[in-house]
Amino acid sequence: MSKPVVEIKNLVKRYGDQLAVDHFSLQLEEGEILGLLGPNGSGKTTTLHCLLALLKYDKGEIQVFGKEMTPESYDSKKNIGVVMQNVAVVDTLSVYENVDFFCGLYIRDKETRKKYVEEAIAFVGLEEYKKYRPKKLSGGLLRRLNIACGIVHKPKLIIFDEPTVAVDPQSRNAILEGIRTLNQRGASIIYTSHYMEEVEELCSRIVIMDKGKNVVSGSAAQLKTSIRNSETVTVETKKLDQEILEEIRQINHVYQVTQSGDKLKIKCDGGSHNLVHIMNYLIEKKVDFGRVTSELPTLNDVFLEITGKELRD
Amino acid sequence: MFTHVFLYKLKEMFRMKWCIGWNLVFPIVLATAFYMGFGNFIREGEEKEVTQVAVVKESDTSFTEILKRVDFLEIKWTKEEEAKRLLKKGRVDGIFYGPKAEGDQPKLVINENGVGQTLLSQFLKSYNLSEFQVKTLMESEKVEDISKAISLVSQEVEYGEEITGFGSYKKEEEISPYMQYFFALIAMASLFSAWLSEFILKEMLASQSEIGKRYECGPIKRSITILAAILAGFVIEILCNVILVCYIQFVLKLSFHAPLFYVFFISCLAGTCGIAFGIFFGILCAGKENLMVTIPLTFSMICSFFSGLMVGNIQQLIQNKMPIINKINPAAVLSDGLYSIGTYGLGREYWVDVAILLGMTFACILISSIILRRKSYASL
């Protein structure tokens, strides 16, 4: 069995008295897209900085491509691409020059470099903007340039740290599609985000972080089935009596009923036809209601159930 | 990799408007403003000025003999009261009290500091030295005619000796005190390079910027990328200094009274010193955006002020009160270096200034590299 591309064991990182990463472990297998999901300040970026040997850590072990990762691991670094949270390009260089400059840190041969640069620019769809300086690019195009600079040397491991923050939906889709393509070409990917939809859509495995800890991990489907909530029914209605709310709570598989404003939220744990049972009850009790929706659990529900708070908090 | 980073950094810096603006355009504009302010004084001074001195002669001695021979002093042979009156009114730069007898030391009295006064003081030092040589010569080689002995020695101590270097230069005129402003200006421009190196550091270190993280995630040693970028900054600084010096010398036509190679050399050395200070400050102020702008600016402006950028004779005032300040102020050291090579020629003073600048550069780089040697950061 081949060694994992990345292996983090019991990582501990403190900033003074504050514990940023708390005995965190993670494995990235070859060809995998691993989503690192967590609210702001949960320790995602700190973990990545430790992984890249930018930050010292207090305890733990980090291996990349089967070797210990240190600031001098130049052989490993040659095969790592990083797309940082904030755009990291040189303002005074054009799009082409930026990509060529960062490619030159990895690739010595001029011909190969030229080929790689052209490919990276085409990959992110910036062919028309080769001569543009970053200041003339829109936010979305700038993000694409940021990605091109990070992946131009065709790395085997690519780390994306929230690459879609403040990006328009069109560019976001293009970025996500690009990441999928990179993965299909053989790159193993770590993707951090606090956008659960993105992670759910893109990643084969998800690690949810909170307060520096690995809260839960698995595929999106595994995570969703691991929690009690299997369906949330939302009903638009006027404020109901406590008695009625209690009776709804008695319906089979309903385990939580909350009302806020004109929204009645009913959470169910497993079972089938929950929506039909709830509607029948409301009709029988002659409760006036408007729109009714039924949702399957999201990663936010997983996070909420495990940590007691919203992922978006 | 080194060349790749160096060439791209060079390209990057050439395109940075603030870099060229502060390091080249601003000093040139300021030089032009200085020139418009007192360029005429400098040129007139160079054309006409002869140092005037009153001499109170007690008797005919070798000192008075030598005074009669020098052509760069306009001598007024007077009585003491008249000499004091002339000095008070500023008609002479100083009073020489001739020795009463051969072997006594002549004395010099001056009221203020300036080029003329420095010249008189230097002349007196040269005389004291040559007097000793004359005596030795008369005794050892049995030269009986004192005039002959003086002639022999004065060839060696002739004021305005020929300097040889990359091209030779015969000193013919005195340097104007107003040139002090231009020296301080070159010093200021040189120290502005501190900004350049601070910028370099900010861009290259993961602790200071996102681009820095990109560099440090790459497979190149931090020291190589930083060195390549600093070399690029150094090239820019040299170019800016050379252009500024050439602008003053050839466009404004104000002479440094020295071979340009030595002017370039010490100016570029001061630029290197500025770069070294910038790196040092960059490390000290890591992550503090405001300090990273204000510290190099304050540093270069204070140093330039105390080297005479705004008050021409401040350096001499400091020299009288606290000379150590002039020795630890890189702008004053450069200014002094330019002044000494222009006034006394290539000599010990110039090389001492060169050594001080080298020492400061070395110290800053040493401390900075010790701090920079750490492999990874405690926080980003």
Q: Can you walk through the features of this model?
A:
The complex is a heterodimer of chains A (313) and B (380). The radius of gyration of chain A is 24 Å and the shape is elongated. In chain A, strand 7 (157-161), helix 6 (169-184) and strand 8 (188-193) form a beta-alpha-beta unit. The relative contact order of chain A is 0.14. In chain A, 34% of the residues lie in helices and 28% in strands. With 313 residues, chain A is α/β, with parallel strands linked by helices. The model of chain A has no long low-confidence stretch (mean pLDDT 90). Chain A folds into two domains: 6-225, Rossmann fold (3-Layer(aba) Sandwich); 231-296, Alpha-Beta Plaits (2-Layer Sandwich). Chain A has a six-stranded mixed beta sheet, with helices on both faces. In chain A, strands 2-1-4-5 form a four-stranded antiparallel beta sheet, with helices on one face. In chain A, strands 12-13-11-14 form a four-stranded antiparallel beta sheet, covered by helices on one side. Chain B has two domains: 2-43 and 174-372, no CATH class; 51-168, abc type-2 transporter like fold, CATH 3.40.1710. In chain B, the strands form two sheets. Chain B has a four-stranded mixed beta sheet with strand order 2-1-3-4, with helices on both faces. In chain B, strands 5-6 form a two-stranded antiparallel ribbon. The longest helix of chain B has 32 residues, at 17-48. Chain B has helices at 2-14, 17-48, 62-69, 80-89, 115-140, 146-156, 179-191, 193-204, 210-217, 222-251, 260-284, 289-305, 314-321, 323-328, 330-343, 348-372, and strands spanning 51-56, 73-78, 94-97, 107-109, 162-165, 167-170. In chain B, helix 11 runs antiparallel to helix 15. By secondary structure, chain B is an alpha/beta fold. The interface between A and B is medium-sized, with 34 and 30 residues.
